[in-house]
């Protein structure tokens, strides 16, 4: 045990991140192994850790310090799949290459190292580190569950890959299954039928032209629509009588998904529309006192890169946002997440840890 502790204490952020990458956390079993490792690592550094289990998936909740305010650091341990070599991390020219290095095991390693340091030099607030599964597959089983269990705070930082930019807004998700009916006929006499595929295409174009999809906000040029799935047609010699579209809408903070849905329903009165998935947008106020503080510290230590922005995609921030808690995406510098040459700049992991550390030293002043 003693040797183990010495070994742990000697680990650098990049060594710890490399260890996490090697777990190849693309399935539940390996995500749990990684969670257990993180739990042991943190406990061996004197950090208090609780493990939550939900539908066989483990989340690690580590706590250091106490104070009037609570900072939640959130990191997901799961990664998207990749070629086998991506799970053998390597360091080239100050960059750590590997699946998850940037999204977001590098940030997780920096956060863990920070927790260990905070045991030695306590923060002025309560700091909770939530290491979760399931982010890449929806998040309900990890962060969603922890929020349900009351693991809440005053500011949440999800260590997503942002190059030190601070993601205060994120689009909401509205995914639709639209069933369009036609009329079958022999393929040699298409004029006798109604082609459901062609009808669906017309419907799709009229949806895209709705005014609501031309709106913009400070952080977003417009909402997005992706025609993600088409299922229709059986044989060449028949006019298809049914076409099902899968449409992924990402709407803007401030827009009302029910209104969007009503408008689409009004446009396609004869189509059947289901909503298989939805997610709330994130609309963290840029003048929130904790966000301002993060901005200030990030600009001081990372320079001009630390600007506010809106994120097109969705992250675990939305579970906290749904509870009215200011939540931001903020992570180190790198590139190619979910791609073949994913890397994180190692020096940025240290700057990242220092920013978070400084934030925990600053958070006590209540009247700021
Ligand atoms: Zn991520």
UniProtKB/TrEMBL annotation:
Highest rank taxon of the organism:
Bacteria
Query: Matching NCBIfam families, A to Z?
Result: DapE-ArgE
**Record-linked InterPro entries:** ArgE/DapE, Bact_exopeptidase_dim_dom, Peptidase_M20, Peptidase_M20_dimer, Peptidase_M20A
Q: Which UniProt keywords apply?
A: Cobalt, Hydrolase, Metal-binding, Zinc
- Pfam families the UniProt entry points to: M20_dimer, Peptidase_M20
List GO molecular-function terms, semicolon-separated.
hydrolase activity; metal ion binding
Q: Where are the transmembrane segments?
A: none
Question: Which protein family is named in the record?
Answer: Belongs to the peptidase M20A family.
Cofactor(s) of this protein? Co(2+); Zn(2+)
Q: Which organism is it from?
A: Brevibacillus reuszeri
Q: Which residues form the Peptidase M20 dimerisation domain?
A: 169-271
Q: Can you name this protein?
A: Peptidase M20
